[in-house]
Amino acid sequence: HTATEGSNEQPREKPLGGRLLATGFDDKSCLSRYHQSSLRKPSPYKPSRYLVSRLRSYEMLHKRCGPGTNAYKRATERLGHNEVRSSGADECRYVVWTPKFGLGNRILSLVSVFLYALMTDRVMLVDQRSDITDLFCEPFPNTSWLLPLDFPLTDQIDSFDREHSQCYGTMLKSHAINSTTIPSHLYIDIFHDSRDHDKMFFCEKNQAFLGSVPWLVVKSNLYYVPSLWLIPNFQPKLKKLFPETDTVFHHLSQYLFHPTNQVWGMVTRSYNAYLSRADEILGIQVRVFGTPAGYFKHVMDQILACTQGQKLLPELGTPESQVTTNTSETSKVKAVLVTSLHPEYSDSLKNMFWERPSSTGEIIEVYQPSGEQVQQTDTKLHDQKALAEIYLLSLTDKLVTSTRSTFGYVAQGLGGIRPWILYEPRNSKVPNPPCVKAMSMEPCSLKAPLSLCQTETIKVTPFVKYCEDRITGIKLV
Ligand code: GDP
Fold first, then answer.
1. Is ipTM beyond 0.90?
2. Once rounded to an integer, what is the mean pLDDT over residues 416-432?
3. Which of 36, 81, 133, 315 is the most buried (most CB within 10 A)?
C-alpha cells in the first residue's frame, strides 16, 4: 500500500518491531522510525524478551557513558595513560566503529561492533567523519552514538593499521602484552586478510584480557558475528539473546538503522510510484565484480536462467498466446525491482517483456531506481541512493542477490528474506546451477576470521556453517 512521506496528517504508526525499538524520540525528526511498519509486512521473527531487556539496559548505559557525560570526560582523560590494574567496575568502556569499504561492508561491521558492545557491556560510538549522519538517524534516545569530533584520538584513528604500535595483533606478535599493564586503548584489525595474531581477538582467553581495556577502536570490512558465536563463553548469552540463531542481523539491523528523512523520501517515492500497486514484488540485485564491470550477456543469461528456472519470472509467450491472456483487468502485476550500478540489465528485462507477452499473462513491470555506473563511496547522494535501494530491496517479496555482495546481504537481512544467490560466473559462462537458495537470511562472514582457538568450537556448533556462495566464509543458520 501507499506510504506517507511526511505529510502533517501522518498516521501514528507503531514503530517497526514493536517493543524492539527505543521510545522517546520525536517522530518527525526521523520518519522512517515510524513509517517502516506501514511498508513492511510484519516480521514473522519476534525478538526474545532477553534481547529487548538487554537493549533497554544498553540504552541506559549509553546515556550514562555517552558523549557529553562526566563518565565520557573521565574516560577520554585516561587515554594515553596505561594502567597497572584495571579500572573500577563502574567506569565506562567503549568500542569505536570506523567506516571501511562500501556501504554494505560498513553496515555489516557496524552490526558486528554493536553485538560485541552488547555482549561485553561497552558503549559503541561511531566515527562520524564519513557521511553516516546523512544516512542514519540516532538509534539511542537522549544521547548520541557519534564519536565527538574532538575525541583525543581522532587524528590517530586514520593511522591505525597493522604496523601501528597500538595494534592488538602486532602487540601479541611482539609479546608486548602482559596482564599487569592495561593499555588505555587498542586498535583491533578484523579484515578478510587479517593475520593469525589479529584473529586471536576471537579467543576466549584474549577476550578476558581485552575486557579490561577501556577503549577499543575497530576497523573491519566483515560481518564477524559468526566468529563471536564461536567464543565458547559467549555462546550461552548469545543463545539467550537469539534463540533463533539466524535472526541476529535481522533484529539488530532493524533496531539500529533508521534512514534519514532524505533517504526515506527516496524509498517512499520509489515505492509509491513503482511498487505499491503490484501483486508481488521481485527484487534482483546485480553486482558485477571484477574489471571491467558492466553489462555481460552471460550475466543476463544467468539472471534469466535463475529467475525463470525458479519460476520467479514467467517464460515468454508467443504472439498468439497474447490473444488468450490479454485480460489486463484480471492479470496479476509483478513488479521487478532491479538494483545495479549498470542500467543495462533492467533495460534488457524491460525490453524482453515489452517485445513479447509473458506466457502466464502476468504483467511484468521493471524498475531500476538508479544506474550509477561506478562506485562512489563517501559521495553523499550516491551513498544515499545506495541505502535507499538496499531498503527497497528489503521490502520485496522475493529476492535474487549476487554472490559475495554485502549490499545484497544487508537487504536480505533487513527484510528477513532468504534469497536466491546468483553464483559467481567463471570463464564468462553461466554457472550450472545458476543460483542457490540461501540456507538462512543471515549475511555471510565472507572470509571468516577463524582463529586456531575456534577450530574445535566450529565442529560442535551446528548453526555456524560454511556459506553457500563462499567456502572461505561462515554464516549463522
Ligand atoms: P559489495 O561491494 O557488493 O559487497 O557492497 P558494498 O555496499 O560494500 O559496496 C558497493 C558500493 O557500490 C555500494 O555501497 C554502492 O556505493 C555501490 N553500488 C553497488 N551496487 C549498487 C546498486 O545496486 N545500487 C546503487 N545505488 N549503488 C550500488
1. yes
2. 96
3. 36
Q: What is the mean pLDDT of residues 280-288?
A: 98
The span from the CA of 72 to the CA of 182, in Å, is 19
pLDDT tens sequence across 372-383: 999 999 999 999
Closest CA to 440 of 256, 286, 248: 248
Residues of the chain with CATH 3.40.50: 266-443
Name the fold adopted by 266-443.
Rossmann fold (3.40.50)
SS3 363: strand
Residue 449 scores a pLDDT above 90? no
pTM of the predicted model, to two decimals?
A: 0.95
Q: Is the pLDDT of residue 6 over 50?
A: no
Cα separation of 309 and 20, whole Å?
38
Cα–ligand 1 centroid distance for 160 (angstroms): 25
Ligand 1, pocket residues at CB < 6 Å: 101-105, 285, 287, 339-341, 370, 372, 375, 377, 382, 385-386, 389, 405-407
Ligand 1 test: best mutation among 341, 384, 387, most atoms within 8 Å of CB? 341
Biggest distance spanned by C-alpha atoms of the chain: 84
| 453 vs 88: CA distance, rounded Å | 30
